[in-house]
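Action item from last week, closing it out:
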Amino acid sequence: MKNSNKNGIFRHWPAILLGAAVAVILIFAIFTYQVNETELAVVTTLGRVAPESPEPGLHFRWPYPIEKIYKFNKRNRVFSGTEAGAAEEMLTSDGKNIVVSIFVVYNIDNPVLFFEKATNINTAEQRLNDWMRGAKSSTFGRFAFDQLINTDPAKMKLDEVSEEILKEIAPQAEKFGIRVSHVGINSLNVPGKITEKIFERMIKEREVKAQVFRSQGEKAARDIRTDAQKKSVQIVAEAEAKAREIRAEGDAEAAKYYAEFKKNPELAEFLRSLEALRQILRTRTTLVLDTDTPPFNLLKADAMSKIGVSSAAEAQTKTQDK
């Protein structure tokens, strides 16, 4: 009997161990909670809020409903307001209508204060929406239309507008444990009824700038043409002076030959005829001409003797020898 009892107990060991493990897990889950790195937690004991937020990690607790744990995401959130981006029409300081929507970047900075003032994200964002509308209206009302919509980036004041809105919202949000780190402009438009006038004004401004650029271009063109004319006159003058110099050298050189030709006109005529014949017969050309026609009369056998080429050649040879 004893052996059979022992065997029965051993047969139930797996079920006993499993039950014990489940019990330990349940007890662990009931008496502990965990806070992630991206979370903030608020602990309430019988409805009283603990003054400090627990650090990330594993913590012990009294079971529900004695202690309740509320967790919030501590990462940045982007909020553009309610009602489809909260684009609203408002007036600038010079009485012009604009349609503006903005957004804020915020995170929960003090979870205990946030829980006491807002309790949850929805309530907090409703408050944020009210603050955004008020700050947006008052801030844009302090700036002129040209400082918000302009073709000249130097005249734009949108960064200053964002900073002013941030300065107005941040202190209010801080009282609710919320830190607003950035304010931006989603859209900035004008109502349809005044869009046409704005376009006309922008076109006129562009036309004025275009006229300025055209005037500058024409002046630059005149300067370039004037400079080019001066350089052209200078280059032509230098070229003419150089040409005169070359012509003078050529005339001086030619005068030497003219002196020789005056001594023997027949030789001069012969050399000119010979040069003409060389030019004509430079390429392969077939000509049928009378040999009495200069310069082809040189081809006659007695042509040399008539002009005394031999004696002239001898005289030239003697001159060269001297």
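Closing note: Residues 2-72 form one domain.
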